[in-house]
Sequence to fold (49 residues):
Amino acid sequence: MAKDFSKTPCHGVPREEIPWYPTVKADACIGCELCYVTFGRKLRIPSSR
Ligand code: SF4
Fold:
């Protein structure tokens, strides 16, 4: 049976405070689209973009 880590911190940070999805730093993006190829619809793009 797998151990339940849902209630234990991850490197000292409560798991509910960690965004478990990739995000884009809009000010650092050069538009190569590799993230789209790699993550597809799982990628979150900031609304300021
Ligand atoms: S991988 Fe995505 S976020 Fe990174 S520079 Fe390329 S397009 Fe921008």
In short: Residues 9 and 42 are 24 Å apart (CA to CA). The mean pLDDT is 83. The radius of gyration is 15 Å. Residues 24, 29-35 surround iron/sulfur cluster (CB under 6 Å).
